[in-house]
Amino acid sequence: MPNHFGEVFPPPAFNAERHAKRRQRVFKALGDDLMLLYNPPEAHRTHDLYYRYRPDSDVYYLTGFEEPDAIVLLVGGKTPRFIMFVRPRDPERETWDGARAGVEGARTCYGADEAFPIERFDAQIGAYLEQTQTLHFKFGRDEQLNQRVIQAFRAAARRRHRQGPAPGIIRDTLPILGKMRLAKDADELLRMRRAADIAAEAHLWAMQSTRPGQYEFQVEAELEYIFRRRGALGSSYTSIVGGGANATVLHYSANNALLRDGDLLLIDAGAEYGYYASDITRTFPVGHRFTPAQREIYELVLAAQKAAIAAVQPGARFDDYHQVALETLIDGLRDLKLLTGSLDEIKEKKTYMKYYMHRAGHWLGSDVHDACTYFTQETENGTFLYEKLRPGCVVTVEPGLYFAPGGKGVPKRYAGIGVRIEDDVLVTRTGNEVLTAAVPKEVADIEAIRRVAPAPGGLPA
After folding, report:
1. Which end of the chain, N or C, is less packed with Cβ atoms under 10 Å?
2. pLDDT (tens digit, 9 = 90+) per residue, 288-314?
3. Rounded to the nearest 5°, which phi and psi values hold at 42?
């Protein structure tokens, strides 16, 4: 294993004041409305075993509460109230599963104005719904809760219809919370820098230690060992470790193939620290150097990524850097005789999607694909505009090219080559900062590392 590790980061401390300030911003945006958020119950893995629990990002952002099976109500109005429904204390279950905050802890530790056992939710939600006309609630994650909320909403409307305006609107939480979560505060950026630092070390070690004859899962194990060793909660998503043609599968996750000299290895893996994500992709030779065909594709993707990073600027639209990456890739593919026609024709007909079928990036934060808005309510000629980048936003920049073997018209020279290069980029007041710059991506730097990588069959130092 590595002879030296970077700093081990302890779990971040809970800060009730920080979460309270965030709730105040929500109350201001809510007006007289009601917002309902929830931490879902634990998910079964098999039989009586559960997956490791992770709280809902919005609940954590506004409360810091990490326990499963909890509902948060934010009641707007002249006297805003923060209400929690949580699992009650249970000494027997706590012996097996660990301590619970309980109803009292929800008030004293997390600042709830009112707190109740989770079993009281169905009986009490109607009283809160009768006080508002609009509920902000995110559908889709838990069908059972969806139905409970709809039934309570309808019942409240029936009770109120003779007394005045009844609740009649359900809105998504995204317009409020997505806007809030878009620009990160100092605490969020600290967590994201640590997540990036941890993942960067893991990627660098993979680049230094990978050798022909290993299996993809062995490389995955090295990555995730470093994630945990340095204080991450683990992976921020299922790691992609794809050698050879597996790199042409965008969300490949089997990670069980043998790595062969002469192939490329694409690693897309990030660490999660304090419920904030990093997201890095690097592509490098399993052997000591790129083949000429691999190098042609790699250098084109790298040129597109560099141009796109330069376009990540405050005031630019979210789509701008994608267009820069796309046009750079199209020009390069035309030069390689892989696409024909003008730039505008290729873009209009989308013939580039044969080799490049995803966007150049996404928001990054507490969620890997952060739950923030991509479009504003501004309109120009009747169409929505992409959100503007502003200081504190973090995006990924990740163009790629993929030549699946057997694909129609894929030249034999490039068959089986998949290349993606991804960095996490913070928008600053004057430009941008690449949070993951510690991982080499220049051809010369990668080949210098690979020349001294372990020989086939050798063990890492």
Report:
1. C
2. 999 999 999 999 999 999 999 999 999
3. -60, 145
